[in-house]
């Protein structure tokens, strides 16, 4: 075997030629108690040996005068040994207690360290900003107002009086009228610069059929078909319109502050340049049933349930709001301006007959709504269609990108889908009645669907919302960035009032939904002539009309409109002094 490895036996035997050579090359190893007892096991052995070491008891003073072989000697030796063992046991118990306390202390320190490390990691940004603020920001403590300062309390009577006096200026007080005898228009928010409803004297005595408010500009149509423009710089001005409102559509801009009316025998009007919208493709007796406007487009619903679109801008911002595939943002085809075009893909549907052939069937719609760049239409059977900008899920679809657009109309929710969502807000979960989809409404980037639940005992109106909700405009009592799924406004479900005519408690219905920029008004269908109005959403400009600027995600009731009697009562109670300007 050694030969197989290529080694010589003689060479192995002659590796060390002498003992001196062996001693020179040998390795030395250390031995002794310090080396033999190295390690944890030997350390415990030494500790145990320390406790088990027994000193010589024969040298104890009690045994010095006794003979080793006597019984007394053995008895005393036994007592000394027992005493020594008890002492060692007490020392060992004391040592064990000490070691346990050390271990417990180490565990507490480790636990505190773990918790402290966790808190530091979780609050790293706050701690970093806190300690950085000591040397990065120079704060003058003397400029910090005392929290006990009466001026800091905004709910004192004096502060409320000051705020009300600032709102109720002389023009505000002079315009107050009795609502029961003098109809009029009240404005609040950016359009009037007031956080309380202020009456516009120029509209006194007029019954308004429609009022549109855009930022600080108002366009109103009275019951006689007259059109008025208003803002704080020009006042209510009647403009000359070439046709009636329901029969034709005209597009025009805002009046300049220097526009002067032409005085006539019966009225004075301002020359208003407008452009007529070409209504092509309408039937002989087909009329416009309703029209809604976006940022630069119109959506029309005819009396026969057909949909038409209109481009109202020279260079529109195309986000798919025109509804036809050839006018999609990816195509370069120009959209005709101020000319109505039929949405053939919505007004018609392809159905398969029992024979297997396909035919085109007309589709009819009952309601429409539009946001800035998005449209929604409601079929007669309750199916909901949307198209256009979907950056805030206002098309009822999940967003694929920050600038998501849906240029092709699509049915996003059927009537059964909407009923399935709404039924869980009812006590009977929709088991004792049927649902119907009634109407649509829209705010800036949010849609609202009005539904009705018809039950044998009582009916119930519901509102569903989807789209942008960052400022509370979804009305679901919480702030949501956006939602593609319709959500029920549960705070409006189950509202009841006592009906004196029937002597029963009845559910309060929903009369109308009107959207502003990022705020929404809901008018309840109360019994009697007076209707309660709820508002929710953004309130930065005082859009709620309650004297505040705090937004709300929950529908809140609007305050009662001030009348002369109310102002006199407030004046008598808190002593507000407001000068009434002299009437000319």
From TrEMBL:
For this protein, the parts annotated as crossing the membrane are 103-121
Q: Which GO terms describe its cellular component?
A: mitochondrial inner membrane
Q: Which GO terms fall under biological process for this protein?
A: mitochondrial respiratory chain complex III assembly
Q: Determine if Phosphoprotein is one of this entry's keywords.
A: no
- RCC repeat residue numbers: 461-526
**Identification of the protein by name:** Uncharacterized protein
Species lineage: Eukaryota, Fungi, Dikarya, Ascomycota, Saccharomycotina
The cross-references to PANTHER family, in alphabetical order and at most eight, read: PROTEIN FMP25, MITOCHONDRIAL
Identify the keywords attached in UniProt to this record, alphabetized: Membrane, Transmembrane, Transmembrane helix
């Amino acid at each position: 075997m050694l030969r197989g490895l290529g080694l010589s036996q003689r060479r192995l035997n002659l590796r060390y030629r002498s003992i001196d050579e062996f001693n020179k090359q040998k390795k030395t190893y250390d031995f002794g108690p310090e080396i033999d007892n190295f390690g944890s096991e030997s350390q415990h052995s030494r500790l145990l040996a320390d406790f088990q070491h027994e000193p010589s008891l024969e040298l104890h003073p009690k045994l010095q005068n006794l003979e080793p072989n006597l019984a007394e000697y053995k008895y005393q030796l036994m007592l000394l040994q027992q005493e020594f063992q008890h002492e060692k046991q007490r020392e060992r118990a004391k040592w064990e207690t000490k070691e346990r306390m050390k271990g417990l202390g180490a565990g507490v320190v480790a636990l505190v360290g773990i918790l402290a490390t966790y808190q530091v990691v979780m609050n790293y940004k706050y701690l970093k900003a806190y300690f950085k603020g000591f040397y990065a920001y120079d704060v003058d403590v003397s400029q910090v107002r005392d929290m006990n300062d009466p001026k800091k309390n905004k709910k004192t009577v004096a502060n409320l009086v000051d705020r009300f006096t600032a709102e109720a200026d002389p023009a505000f007080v002079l315009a107050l009228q009795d609502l029961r005898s003098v109809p009029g228009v009240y404005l609040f928010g950016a359009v009037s610069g007031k956080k309380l409803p202020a009456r516009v004297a120029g509209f006194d005595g007029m019954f308004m059929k429609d009022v549109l408010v855009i930022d600080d500009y108002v366009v109103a149509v009275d019951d006689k078909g007259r059109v008025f423009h208003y803002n704080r710089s020009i006042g209510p001005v009647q403009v000359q319109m070439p046709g009636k409102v329901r029969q034709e559509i005209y597009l025009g801009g805002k009046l300049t502050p220097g526009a002067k009316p032409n005085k006539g025998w019966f009225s004075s009007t301002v020359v208003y340049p407008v452009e007529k919208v070409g209504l092509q493709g309408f039937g002989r007796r087909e009329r416009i049933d309703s029209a809604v406007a976006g940022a630069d487009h119109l959506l029309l619903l005819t009396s026969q349930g057909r949909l038409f679109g209109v481009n109202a801008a020279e260079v529109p911002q195309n986000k798919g709001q025109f509804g036809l595939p050839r006018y999609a943002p990816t195509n370069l085809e120009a959209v005709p301006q101020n000319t109505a075009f039929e949405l053939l893909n919505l007004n018609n549907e392809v159905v398969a007959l029992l024979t297997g052939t396909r035919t085109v069937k007309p589709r009819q719609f009952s309601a429409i709504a539009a946001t800035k760049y998005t449209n929604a239409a409601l079929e007669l059977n309750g199916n909901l269609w949307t198209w256009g900008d979907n950056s805030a899920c206002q098309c009822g679809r999940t967003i694929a990108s920050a600038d998501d657009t849906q240029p092709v109309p699509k049915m996003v929710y059927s009537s059964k889908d909407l009923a399935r969502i709404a039924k869980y807000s009812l006590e009977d979960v929709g088991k004792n009645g049927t649902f119907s989809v009634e109407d649509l409404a829209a705010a800036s980037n949010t849609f609202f669907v009005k539904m009705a639940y018809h039950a044998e005992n009582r009916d119930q109106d519901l509102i569903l919302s989807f789209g942008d909700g960052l400022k509370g405009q979804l009305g679901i009592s919480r702030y949501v960035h956006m939602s593609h799924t319709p959500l029920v406004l549960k705070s409006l479900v189950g509202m009841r009032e006592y009906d004196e005519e029937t002597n029963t408690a009845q559910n309060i219905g929903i009369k109308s939904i009107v959207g502003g920029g990022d705020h929404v008004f809901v008018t309840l269908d109360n019994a009697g002539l007076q209707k309660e109005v709820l508002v929710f959403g953004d309130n930065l400009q005082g859009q709620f009309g309650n004297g505040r600027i705090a937004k709300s995600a929950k529908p809140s009731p609007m305050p009662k409109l001030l009348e002369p009697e109310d102002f006199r009562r407030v004046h008598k109670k808190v002593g507000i002094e407001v000068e009434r300007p002299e009437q000319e």
